Every structure is written in C-alpha cells, then in structure tokens.
Automatic annotation (TrEMBL):
Recorded superkingdom: Bacteria
Keyword check for DNA-binding: yes
DNA-binding region coordinates: 57-76
Protein name: Transcriptional regulator, TetR family
PANTHER family cross-referenced by the UniProt entry: HTH-TYPE TRANSCRIPTIONAL REGULATOR RUTR (PTHR30055:SF196)
Protein species of origin: Pseudoduganella namucuonensis
Limits of the HTH tetR-type domain: 34-94
Length: 234
C-alpha cells in the first residue's frame, strides 16, 4: 500500500455569532475567517489539480485540510464555490503578471523578457494553480468562461494595442500580436502542465532551476526573432 499523503491541518474558526462590528474581537474574527478561507483554497488547488473538478469531492478536500466536511462547508457551502475561489486566486496572480506587458514606454525587449520571466516563474512556483486553470480551459471553461471573458479579454486587447503602437513607431517588426501572445502562453504554460514529461525526457525526477532558465532564454530568443530584435542589446 502506498504511504498516505500528509494532511495539512487547519485550525477552524469557531462558528459562534460574531460580536458587534466595531469591536476588536469582531475584526480578529474576520481576519481569522479570511485566513482560513485562503488556507482551504491553498489546499484545494492541489486536490483539484490532481483529480479534476469532477473527480474532486468536498470530503476529500476537507480530509486533506484536516477539517470535517461540515466545518469546511461553513466557509464554502458548495464545491463550485470553492472551485470559483481557487480559480479567482489563480487568475488574480496571472493577470497581475500579464499587466506588465501593457507598457508602451519601455524597450519592447525588456518588457517581453520580463513578461516571459514572470510567466515561467508562475509555472515554476505555482504549478498546481497553473494546472487547475489549464484543466478548466481544456474542458471548455464551462464553469469559468464568463470570468475569463470579462477579465482576460480586456487586458489582452490592451496588450495587443501596445504591440500595434510599437509596430507603428517602427520599434518592432509587423507581427500578429494576438497569436504571438498565444504562443508565449503556450510555451510558458507547458513548463507547468508538462513538467513531468520534460523531466522524464531529461532523465531526472523534476525540472531544475537551470531547466527553467534555459527554457526562458530559448523562448526569449524565439520571441525576439519573431519581432526582429536581438535577444540582447547591441
């Protein structure tokens, strides 16, 4: 029998009615609840990544978090509510990194390198979060498509507008900005979703920091070639 996975034991916040809103104890209760909800979401992201939405149960997440199912459902009444919270957290962080691309003032070379670095760092540091998001999109984004359209599309359009301004100013070669961004997403995302396959091909248990650095340099060179800029200043 394989060894059981260690549980992340979370300390539940008592369910008693809160004291008056202005009291310090009430503020502590709110902070404690926020902290516990975040801790539950941090445990849930790995379970969703390993089992998928359909294969995940509230009971399994509660067990991994060291909580009773009833206690977890006090904070997240349904699996979909918890899944929504997990994807909200993933998208918040991903979009924060994506915003760095919408910068027409700085050198396109520096902007694009920083963006690729940020996306690869997300794949390296948050592989479970990256996989949950990818699994939702691969399944057709049936549960999260509206949020993706509402939040990702406007920022993508801003990024494309920056590319068009760079092209108009002669700072980069003409390029289909939409599909170039899609390619950057695909290349950087693969270091989270297919890291196990990459490690097997490379003959090791997991990717190393050097693997990510080598991947970054290769992606940067490819992107710079696409926009007719050298990867380093001349």
């Amino acid at each position: 029998m394989p060894a059981a996975k260690p549980k992340t034991v979370l300390k539940a916040v008592p369910d008693a009615a809160p004291p008056p809103a202005r009291s310090s104890s009430s503020q502590r209760r709110i902070l404690n609840r926020d902290r516990l909800e975040a801790d539950i979401a941090a445990v849930a992201v790995r379970v969703f990544a390993e089992c998928g939405y359909e294969g995940t149960s509230i009971a399994a997440i509660a067990e991994s978090a060291g909580l009773s199912k009833q206690n977890l459902m006090y904070y997240y009444p349904t699996k979909q509510a918890l899944y929504q919270r997990v994807l909200d957290d993933v998208l918040d962080e991903w979009l924060a990194r994506m915003e760095s691309l919408a910068d027409e003032v700085h050198d396109p070379r520096d902007v694009l390198r920083a963006y690729i670095q940020a996306k690869l760092r997300f794949s390296r540091e948050q592989p479970w979060a990256s996989r949950v998001y990818a699994m939702e999109v691969i399944s057709g984004a049936q549960l999260y498509g509206e949020q993706i359209q509402r939040r990702v599309v406007p920022l993508l359009r801003k990024d494309i507008d920056v590319f068009e301004k760079w092209i108009a100013a002669g700072r980069i070669a003409p390029v289909n900005a939409t599909h170039l961004i899609f390619m950057i997403w695909a290349m950087t995302q693969s270091y989270a979703d297919f890291s196990a396959q990459m490690a097997l091909v490379l003959g090791r248990k997991q990717l190393t920091r050097k693997d990510y650095d080598d991947g970054e340099e290769t992606i940067v060179r490819m992107v710079m070639a696409a926009i007719s800029l050298p990867s380093e200043p001349r």
